[in-house]
């Protein structure tokens, strides 16, 4: 939890150790890293980041491979998605109205399927592209799995399950391009 924390410090506090934040060129001059903000934890860090970004009218792209956060202006022309870009339905300048009820999206992975098959199936439902260049790296899902949230949330959570595998997976999620890019995670040096 952070109360009256500089925005730049809040981003550092929310992201796990080893992550770095960068401002996109589009926000140069309009981004105030010294703006005081409040944030509350108690949920996955990507959710906390999403909430903070929405409150500050920002988008945040998460590069899972490099462990980088890219802060930019919220793109109101893009469809609403959560996490990697941390975007949501735009706020209207008109009088506030009751928010529409949103059905929680549920993603299931069947026992016997592979991570690649599962992610490709999920991505297809949202018109996303999956790039999986490794021909010799995939993992069989041994028990049924269920995730809720956005496609980005589900892909991120599924991938985290394999971070301690002999050959861990890494995923880069590029919301603006609707691209999910897998690779073999590089060994820590």
TrEMBL record:
Annotated ranges, domain Toxin co-regulated pilus biosynthesis protein Q C-terminal: 105-183
Protein name in UniProt: Toxin co-regulated pilus biosynthesis protein Q C-terminal domain-containing protein
